[in-house]
Amino acid sequence: MNRALILTTLSALLGHWRRHPLQVFALIAGLALATALWSGVQALNAEARASYARAANLLGQDQFDRILRQDGRAMDQAIFSELRRAGYLVSPILEARLGSGPNALRVLGIDPLTLPVAALPERLQSGSIPVTDILLGGQVLMTSDTASRGLPPDLTEHARTILGNASYDDTLATALVIGDIATIAQLVGEMGPTALIVSAPQPFGLVSIDTWLALRGDLILQQAETSNDLARLTDSFHLNLTAFGFLAFAVGLFITHATIGLAFEQRRTSLRALRALGVPLGGLIVLLAAELGVFALGSGILGLGLGYGLAATLLPEVSASLRGLYGADIGAVMQFDPMWAVAALAMSVIGAAIAGASALWRVARLPILRSATPNSWAQTSAALRLIQALLGLGLLALSGLVVIFGSGLMMGFIGLAALLLGGALVLPFGLSVLLAGIATRVRAPFMHWALADMRLSLPALSLSLMALLLALSTNIGVSTMVGSFRATFTGWLDQRLASELYLTTASPEQAARVTDYLTPRVDAILPFALADTRFRGLPAELHGLVDHATYRDHWPFLEALPDAWSQMAEGQAVVINEQLARREGLELGQDFDVTPSLTLPILGIYSDYGNPEGQAIIGLDLFKTLFPESPPLRFALRTDPATVTDLAADITEATGLSPQSMINQAAVKDISLRVFEQTFQVTYALNALTLGVAGFAMFTSLLTLSEMRLAQIAPIWAAGQRRRNLAWAEFLRVIAFASFCTIFALPLGLALAHYLLAIINVEAFGWRLPLQIFPADLIKLCALAAAAAAIAALWPAWQLARLSPHRLLGLFAHER
Prior knowledge:
Blueprint: H1 3-19, H2 21-58, E1 65-69, H3 77-85, E2 90-98, E3 105-110, H4 122-126, H5 131-135, E4 140-142, H6 144-149, H7 157-164, E5 167-168, E6 176-180, H8 181-188, E7 195-198, H9 209-216, E8 219-222, H10 229-233, H11 235-266, H12 268-276, H13 281-326, H14 338-365, H15 374-405, H16 409-439, H17 445-456, H18 458-496, E9 501-504, H19 508-518, E10 524-535, E11 538-545, H20 549-554, E12 557-560, H21 564-569, E13 574-577, H22 578-584, E14 591-595, E15 598-606, E16 614-619, H23 620-626, E17 634-638, H24 644-655, E18 662-664, H25 665-679, H26 681-708, H27 710-718, H28 723-765, H29 775-801, H30 805-810
Parallel strand pairs: 3-6, 4-5, 11-16, 13-15
Antiparallel strand pairs: 1-7, 1-8, 2-3, 2-7, 4-6, 9-17, 9-18, 10-11, 10-17, 12-15, 13-16, 14-15
Helix pairs in contact: 1-13, 2-11, 2-13, 2-14, 2-26, 11-14, 11-18, 11-26, 13-14, 13-25, 15-16, 16-17, 16-18, 16-28, 18-25, 18-26, 18-28, 18-29, 26-29, 28-29
């Protein structure tokens, strides 16, 4: 093609967009929304993972091995001294949590003189904060974001003074405080190091540190690549976000695909004329692809900006979800990363290529001389619908096979994608069969025409209907999952939080004063103790509880052997949570290593919703023997609920225990339920966005189709139908399509809910929830779908009602 021919062809092609500005808007909006939703989710994931990397890199977790006790407890300072005297280059660290509630802090004590330089905080490496300030001045480091969030309410005045004078280092992870190990030990109760950082390489001539540890028998060497437990723990959450991002991207592409397809159909006459005038097919397709590429880049840049704004808006909710589910803090300030920006633009171009490929293929394959009527498009699309249906049935079968034979989170998402995509591909063929079946039972001529017109418009509307089906199914599935979770979680809280008042003391002496005061004033005092440990190499919690009817009657066992609680309280057995049982494949009656030197049989497995870690419970007396350094400082009180407020005030006055260290049952439940709701804020937001995008897809399809359908409407108007009746028929046609989509979406959405509860939740979080159906929520979603379709149909129907008779008569003046 010469330059003049290229310019002339481009002018003819671009003329279509000048005459149809709404299609330009739909095309750009579709690509921009798809890119925005995808890039926004990826930006959130990138920000979170960067936070995990900062936390891991801080102490060289990705570079240096660590020495830990096998039972996960703090070690004696003498171990560090013995290793240093033997010539090994090790450095002690102390990791613990400080305070409670949403502003709880992770504190980290280091020895700046022995810690490898690469593991020091950046401001200590650069010298902007002198090491002497850390060693001698009691200085601690935190981010400015951590300071702005406020301190936990249950800190001592000494702790508040130290933290109030902190220096800021914004390269640290949020909610992390770093200081000299002696300073941090004062904050958390004078405990020993929790680990030793091992420098690399070690001095020449020493016995291998593995050999030295093997001779002791009570220590283990944790390799550097396995140290970052947080990133591994949160992988499931980010995989869920990525899945939502892909779904939203796909729904956005449906808008683009439908707009491109309709635009090419409207330009079919122009394309035939260009071919007849000598424009080669290859050159025409190249120009169409270049045109699409320009749209893709422009839309991608717009979508990138929208995605960044979306990510910045959702980041606080993501941070709250990660804190509620995993105790992970990622801050609330969005950082710009060029890598995900480039990836977002690439996704926009790839998305445009995917959306435009089938339209370009249809242009290349349809004979030049075939009439450019909607019937030709319908005939071309009929075979494609059958192929799509067969492919969809194959994907649904694959989804079923994954349920039966698959395992692992990635396989679960593959099955989930197969379920949704299979349902969407079956939809056009299913609607065609449904409409044909209804037509056989209709006698009125106008209804026959309306049903035939609906079948004729299926090729143009199928993609927007598939987008609506995906959005509806996702909303139904996720809302059913969240509703099932909420109902189960609320019942679980009623069982787990049976006591009327909970309090936390600061020391064994204060605990003794409080229990002495309370003994004659309450029905029961139930002490419990907690120690952080590791089961089979992964972080876990070990609790010590007493035998009492509160626990025997209310503890939420999923399965248990007879008299499990009493035997556990006597130190003869252990009970574990569902997460630990599923993760390690444990069953009732199996032996379980509570510590390297103690094995007990498992007599019960209990539900522990919201906890990502393994947990085990033993009797309190046995716990005190195993962990004398972790005395019971927390207590649950059984008393008259009506006296709880007065009792809390009396405790403060008599013992000096601060009100922040006490919380009643109602407050605990309220906090737990608020954390629960906050955890799903991101899911709600992405659900709403996906449904909104699907509604927009319906609107753009109807808008671009309205011009093409005038040739079918004009003869019906000429036969005597009033324009107002035709407008109502148009409006009701869209409502009918939305209703049929809802009928298909209900079983697909409930299947999705089962998938999420029985497969994804189990693989991602370690617990399984029963499926519960909430008819009121389903009715609300169906009404929402009908409302979205009605809003989408209003403008095209109103335009049809106001269409001039002259315009309709003009359609008979030339061939369509």
